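We close this part of the discussion by returning to an individual protein. In the encoding step, the backbone of a single protein was reduced to a row of integers, each denoting a local shape. The sequence in question and its structure tokens are set out directly beneath this paragraph.
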Amino acid sequence: MEHFDKVIIDLVKHQDFARGLFEINEQFYYLKQENYIRDLLIKTLNNTLENNLAIAEYPRSYVRANEGSALNMGRRDIGLFEINNGRFDIKEPAYSIEIKFHFPLDLFRENLDDLGDRKHHRTDLGDIHAHWNRDICNNKTDCLILVICERDWVDSACVADSANRNCAIDLLQEHAGLRKKLASYIAEFDCDFSSALRTSIKSPTVVTAEATTRYTFLFLFKK
């Protein structure tokens, strides 16, 4: 487990990953970028790992609930599978990853009044909590990656889902207030995220050449 923990941290730190984020934000700045960041991580994992395969949205399995319907057993964002003789078991991942993407007001509306006003996604914290705690085919989440996207340039673009950032959000410092509160809510005990990284890139050049977009990656690893 610790091997995969380190691999993920090292990949997100790498300049190649930052370049990938820039390309995502250049083309899809008006969307929540969860799936695009997931796919970027999968590509970098598959270019790095040996004897392991990263795939998205496994296992896509269903069980028959009754004669006329099927029950979705759920899907994981990323699974890492050991390859033996060219084969792997889709229900037996070596490592499971969930990724969630949010703008600051999705999570911190009550704490950051200076960020602006918009409809608060009241279910966001509950969704993160559920993804961290859910089992898929009797396998727990080994890594939760929470991506928080901050933007200064929204006033000059039609991006309704991100309020203008007018005050500092401290999530990098260990035991920072908001970070500690968020981690404790997700994991239901007094904890902190295992690691935090920030990547700053140029905001979409088609919109503005002067501002930056900041991505904070918070990692919660299964102990």
The chain has six helices and eight strands. The mean pLDDT is 82.
